[in-house]
Amino acid sequence: MSKIYYLNKKQTCIRPVLIILTSHRLDCLILCLRCLEWYTNLDNFKEIYIVCNEVSEEHQAIIGRFLSKHENASKIDCLPRGLVPAVAGALNALLAAHKDDLIVTIDEDVFVTPHWLEHMTEASRAHKNTPRTAAFSPVVPVSPMGREALSRFLRVAYPSQRRMFQGLGVPDNWVYHRWMWEKILEENLAEVYLASHRGRYQTTRSVSFNCLFMTKALLDLILPLPMPGAPEGSLFNHPALSETMQRQGLNAVVASRCLVHHYSHAACEDYLRGRVPLEAVWKFMQSQPARELFRHEILRAADHRATAKLALVRA
């Protein structure tokens, strides 16, 4: 008869702490929360905090409805409007309280995709014995870290359009914002990338905080906020952080098989809303392409796990 032998030990459960930052873009927050509920088992988070920076009554009502459905979720109100000092103070308290946890921060205009959390916790698990890994990130196309991760793919896939994705830094590059979203919505850039990219992880010494999983090693570098030398009204000094990470031999890992979408940096938002309205992004995120984005990868991973985990030995 056949016997079943389990060849690998039960994997350690990783339960990150999720921090969502929100202020005035209610339409973005609604889609952000909806995508989290569509594509994530929220019980897999140890805690969920929504940091509310002077939000409206309607905003509070939407957040209250979300909190009523998730026992591990709570909100923190901070005043006045602005990252400094209000949001900085709230984040300092939360990050210090959970310094030994894996912490993920996302902005209100970040929209997750199917199985994103599984991809990211697997990345953390795969690098648990790599102390020089300070942070983890999915591929976030509309972010500096995401453009760097996609750079080789973009050069190969769109050789005649390099002027659209090179040059000015992403936060101020309205051309890149529009071009990238049009490729995602109209030409299925995400699926094309996933079908062509074979590597699981990339490393970098720069980080983008739109959607970032942070370890204690990174928190030791950035706390307390705002970082010394950060631009007025900002929390982070990106050049100094990259330099410090390089000096200390630390890096960030990008999970190449996981895409998460960020709508817009502040400087480009008004322009982008007039060319790529949020309604179009909403339709895409709830459409079949978005829901099936990782289907082939999930099936492949399931086959791999079945092969590795289960062996039938005929007696």
Can you give a write-up of this model?
- The structure is a single chain.
- 37% of the residues are buried.
- Helices cover 46% and strands 20% of the residues.
- It has helices spanning 26-39, 57-69, 83-97, 116-126, 144-157, 162-165, 174-187, 189-196, 216-222, 238-247, 269-275, 278-285, 288-291, 295-309, and strands spanning 2-6, 17-22, 47-53, 73-78, 103-107, 110-111, 133-139, 201-204, 211-214, 251-259, 261-262, 310-314.
- The termini are close together.
- It is globular.
- β2, α1 (26-39) and β3 (47-53) form a beta-alpha-beta unit.
- The protein has a single domain (14-309), classed as Spore Coat Polysaccharide Biosynthesis Protein SpsA, Chain A, CATH 3.90.550.
- The chain has an eight-stranded mixed sheet, sandwiched between helices.
- It has 14 helices and twelve strands.
- The longest helix is centred in the N-terminal third of the chain and has 15 residues, at 83-97.
- The protein has 315 residues and is α/β, with parallel strands linked by helices.
